[in-house]
Amino acid sequence: MQRHLISAADLTRDDAVLILDTAEEMARVADRPIKKLPTLRGRTIVNLFFEDSTRTRISFEAAEKRLSADVINFTAKGSSVSKGESLKDTAQTLEAMGVDAVVIRHGASGAPYRLATSGWIDAAVINAGDGTHQHPTQALLDAFTMRRRLVGRDAGLGQDLSGRRITIVGDVLHSRVARSNVDLLHTLGAEVTLVAPPTLVPVGVETWPCEVSYDLDSTLAKSDAVMMLRVQRERMNAAFFPTEREYSRRYGLDGDRMARMPEHAIVMHPGPMVRGMEITAEVADSDRCTVVEQVANGVSIRMAVLYLLLGGNEPAVAHARTPEEK
Amino acid sequence: MSKILIRGAKVLGGEPQDVLIDGEIIAQVGAGLSDEDALVVEADGKVLLPGLVDLHTHLREPGREDSETVLTGTRAAASGGYTAVFAMANTFPVADTAGVVEQVYRLGQEHGYCDVQPIGAVTVGLEGKKLAELGAMHESAAGVTVFSDDGKCVDDAVMMRRALEYVKAFGGVVAQHAQEPRLTEGAQMNEGVVSAELGLGGWPAVAEESIIARDVLLAEHVGSRVHICHLSTAGSVEIVRWAKSRGIDVTAEVTPHHLLLTDELVRTYNPVYKVNPPLRTERDVLALREALADGTIDIVATDHAPHPHEDKDCEWGAAAMGMVGLETALSVVQETMVTTGLLDWAGVADRMSFKPAKIGRAAGHGRPVSAGEPANLTLVDTAYRGSVDPAGFASRSRNTPYEGRELPGRVTHTWLRGKATLVDGKLT
């Protein structure tokens, strides 16, 4: 049986809740004087990063080390890996070294799926972000953060996010975070609304299990959580919106807008934040903003995923897609 | 022995007849012909077609002989029942001078598996900036009549207008790769539901349709003829249908893979399905079949695009675009058009031989199967069904989307001017 985590869409509700519950257990490890479990002792995990992401890599590395795995960091930064062979060659080199799992970050959508299904390697594959496709552990840590804040740390155990209303704002078109969150939050019973200028919503979005709105203000009052996505400045040059200021006025979250959210509602951001663009400093620094918690929760979630994929008794995550078309 | 008697073949799918080849020409067609002095080929009710003509083949030579050469490509063509192929200009160096097109033409003649008719580039180096020497290529030994920057669109409207006007002097045609470049920056697959989910850059239908709309209007304005390469969307069909109803001299081709495959296959992220234009939706596929049946789309052309293994055995984003097609085209057409009742075998002969030869002005090809005509013929075992095994391909490349897929029909014999290039499924 294949055991990979490629897409948030591959997780069932029970899989996802098990990961969240396991992450709560893992979080307790962080409160101990010695933050380490022997669970993955003797296992070797490679962090295979074809694209820069210090935050995600460190988060995985911390999770792997807390589970006592042996960690190899492979950063294939730059243009030497512009040719496709290197993914296959690199993977096979790692396989020959007896790697048990590969955590892969890649600029090309589908690269982790290809790695997991092409027969190049036998190791478990964990997607740490591929192109504009998926970033499933990010969605899991976001859901974990929501469950803790909106349901409660202990009360949340075994629970999903049924009935919660989540608004995701910004560059949906280029966002693997948005895709992963829509899939996972829907599976967990939440109602998701995407808010963006029409230029930053993908053609074909109508089949996604969510609502789409072009108007941020009309969604704020009914949101339990508002997740701001990072907007890259180069999008402006590609005419996705006229100016940074216009974007901020229409889709940025400032103090006034935050005040229109329900009292209990939280503000989320996958980071890194562009202060003054999609989010003002006032909002980013408020105690309703969960950015720092999300980072801490990321380690717990990644511990849970690694534990369940590599060390747990029952596979919590099974790859649901068919490997090849018949 | 120069006589060959093909006995009991269903000519264009009709009643079984005997066909006698004498030398390079068809001597007689009729019932109960004498087999004296002739090598007899028992056709057993197989279908006999005029040799197929492909208006859109990439032979890769010169420059990318690791993918394909004129020799391997023409052997693949003969295996697929073709007697003439038009070789696209995007080689290295680009076929934009009389020298390059003559070289390609001559190689085809020397190898003798299939006539190779080079296509000349419209612009120097396919760069879209300066017209190539279209007249010199036409007057060369290769006698080029079809010009295309295929792989790239002639997106500059003025350049396209000039090319259309210029080729009128010698009856040429501009074959357009319709792809608005700005709308397809970063494009990886059809833009729609699947691309949204997979997070792959979208290639919207409108990028093809807007160029076709522009070009048919340009062709009308200057009174020239334009050919649309690998048309792939339902919207494009509507535009071509409108243009023809208006009397505009436009022809269009569809590839076998666009008649069969959809963008749902991209969910496998297997780059064997990566092709340009991309695989579209089921709705598009059905519209293309209808349009080929009713004549809105004139011909089937393979867009045979060989690539070495390493250019496909990688992640989707890094992979080359294209599929091989010469050896499976007729089977796919049988599956999608004949088995479905949309076309009979006479229709297949029309769309895969008569019309492509006419559009490309390929003398001696696309002729009726009757006495006095050049003996360019293809014999097809239409009752055959089997799964596709790329290991047996004559093409140097194996990037077929049909590996392991069961398809009907098998070309058993091909004759080029009376000379067998394929006998019992084996190349001579």
Automatic annotation (TrEMBL), chain A:
Carbamoyl phosphate binds at residues 55-56, 105, 135, 138, 271-272. Keywords: Pyrimidine biosynthesis, Transferase. Residues 3-147 form the Aspartate/ornithine carbamoyltransferase carbamoyl-P binding domain. L-aspartate binds at residues 83, 176, 230. Pfam families: OTCace (PF00185), OTCace_N (PF02729). It comes from the Bacteria. InterPro entries: Asp/Orn_carbamoyltranf_P-bd, Asp/Orn_carbamoylTrfase, Asp/Orn_carbamoylTrfase_sf, Asp_carbamoyltransf, Asp_carbamoyltransf_Asp/Orn-bd. The keyword Transferase applies. One of its GO terms (molecular function) is aspartate carbamoyltransferase activity. Residues 163-309 form the Aspartate/ornithine carbamoyltransferase Asp/Orn-binding domain. Belongs to the aspartate/ornithine carbamoyltransferase superfamily. ATCase family. Catalyzes the condensation of carbamoyl phosphate and aspartate to form carbamoyl aspartate and inorganic phosphate, the committed step in the de novo pyrimidine nucleotide biosynthesis pathway. PANTHER family: ASPARTATE CARBAMOYLTRANSFERASE, ORNITHINE CARBAMOYLTRANSFERASE, MITOCHONDRIAL. This is Aspartate carbamoyltransferase. It comes from Streptomyces akebiae.
From TrEMBL, chain B:
It holds the Pfam family DHOase. It catalyses: (S)-dihydroorotate + H2O = N-carbamoyl-L-aspartate + H(+). Zn(2+) 1 binds at residues 56, 58, 150, 303. Coiled coil: none annotated. GO terms for molecular function: dihydroorotase activity. Keywords: Hydrolase, Metal-binding, Pyrimidine biosynthesis, Zinc. Its cofactor is Zn(2+). The keyword Zinc applies. Zn(2+) 2 binds at residues 150, 177, 230. Residues 45-233 form the Dihydroorotase catalytic domain. Its EC number is 3.5.2.3. Substrate binds at residues 58-60, 90, 276, 307. The keyword Transmembrane does not apply. Catalyzes the reversible cyclization of carbamoyl aspartate to dihydroorotate. Belongs to the metallo-dependent hydrolases superfamily. DHOase family. Class I DHOase subfamily. This is Dihydroorotase.
